[in-house]
Design brief:
It contains seven helices and no strands. The protein is mainly α. The chain is elongated and about 75 Å long.
Length: 198
């Protein structure tokens, strides 16, 4: 535990540099605003899906535009492919939202200030042992999940994509996968070298 007297005797320049961490606060507030935009987008898409399920042709057209679905015939009602693509888009929004929460909460706790959530019933399990290294691994696995959803959406709607686009999306996804494995392996090596560092 830090001696309170050490804070009082801290030299002005180190104190100023250490206080600069609060400059990150507006960034996290901005991410919270972005989270609000995602919540709004999620509900707009969900309302369109429910309206389309009850026969609204305008809602079907809104969904078709939002997912980029193309067909040789005019789509006037829901089909299994459209439902699947919309649901995957909603899952995608949820996963990106989860990623945002990890960055906001984990980043603030790691780089700005402690939240003092110990003993709180809603404290996320992963937050009790979060640090920059753990955060990197969690973010990498979250990005792979998001990339997987995007790739699945592309393959379901593959007829509307060029072969080159399909190939590059797959290559990029594999690159994300190998990057995450490399980050996790590096973290494991560092943990083994410095067992008390976490």
């Amino acid at each position: 535990m830090t001696d309170p007297r050490s804070r009082a005797t801290m030299r002005p320049l180190p104190r100023f540099i250490f206080a600069s961490r609060w400059l990150q606060l507006p960034l996290y507030i901005g991410l919270i605003a972005a989270q609000g935009v995602y919540v709004f987008h999620f509900w707009v898409e969900l309302v369109h899906l429910l309206e389309a399920a009850f026969g609204s042709e305008a809602a079907v057209q809104a969904l078709v535009r939002s997912i980029g679905y193309k067909s040789d015939v005019v789509v006037s009602q829901l089909n299994e492919t459209i439902i699947m693509l919309v649901v995957l888009a909603l899952i995608d929004v949820v996963m990106i939202s989860n990623l945002l929460i990890m960055v906001i909460v984990g980043g603030y706790e790691t780089f700005v200030s402690r939240m003092d959530l110990d003993g709180h019933p809603d404290q996320p399990e992963w937050l009790s042992h979060v640090n920059a290294s753990v955060l990197k691994v969690k973010l990498a696995t979250a990005i792979i999940g998001i990339s997987s959803i995007h790739l699945l959406k592309t393959f379901i709607n593959a007829a509307n994509y060029d072969e080159k686009v399909l190939m590059w999306q797959t290559i990029i996804h594999v690159a994300f996968l190998f990057s995450a494995i490399a980050i996790a392996y590096t973290d494991k090596l560092l943990s083994a070298a410095h067992p008390n560092g976490h």
